[in-house]
Design brief:
The protein has 234 residues and is an all-alpha fold. It contains 9 helices and 2 strands, in the order E-E-H-H-H-H-H-H-H-H-H. A two-stranded antiparallel sheet has the order 1-2.
Length: 234
Amino acid sequence: MRVRDGLTWPARRAKPAVEMAIDIRPVVHVIGLMLMAFGTVMLFPAALDLSGGLPDWRAFVTSGIAALFVGGCMALATADAPVRGLDVRQAFVLTVGIWVSLSLFGALPFMLGPPDLSFTDAVFEAVSGTTTTGSTVIVGLDALPPGINLWRGMLNWIGGLALFNLTSVLTGTGFFSGSYGAGGPFAMVVALVLGMIGGCSRSGPRWAISATAMGRWRRRRRHSAISTIPRSGS
């Protein structure tokens, strides 16, 4: 209450301050974990080239180490980030950050090994894969090592349903509601990776991935397996 001119007036309510800054520490932490998982995935085309006696496996190992190092530094630097749900602005930053970071690191094998693309062409190729655009600047795909062709396919495969599955995992683990569940944000990334290979337990709501997302991943894996079968006469 306040007194003015001998009269008592109700106190004015203070206007809430508009929060302009965005706490990006949780976003950076999740992106770092995603980069670590992305760097691990690069071992598959490296193993394919190594099994064929091709020296191009070094490009994938180098790229994977770079992704693991940068992602690990990001995750460790923000390990004390407040464990809470993301607001709408943080969710937008997370989506853009994941797409940009995966595209940049996904372009490294195209620059370090065949087809020896420039930075612009390599980023274009990686963005084309993660967004499933299908465009390419590479000429003579059949002459490329099997590892780089596998990597092109993996970028399309991962990018095709990554956003859909990521959304399902975020909502299923309570990421937006402020409850990560046991394991914190690392549990969310583990659920995403396990969801890709079909090994995610659905025993709890925080680890659950929607049936629609899992069904789409199963169909994508089935189609991928069928496409690897050699055609007659090829």
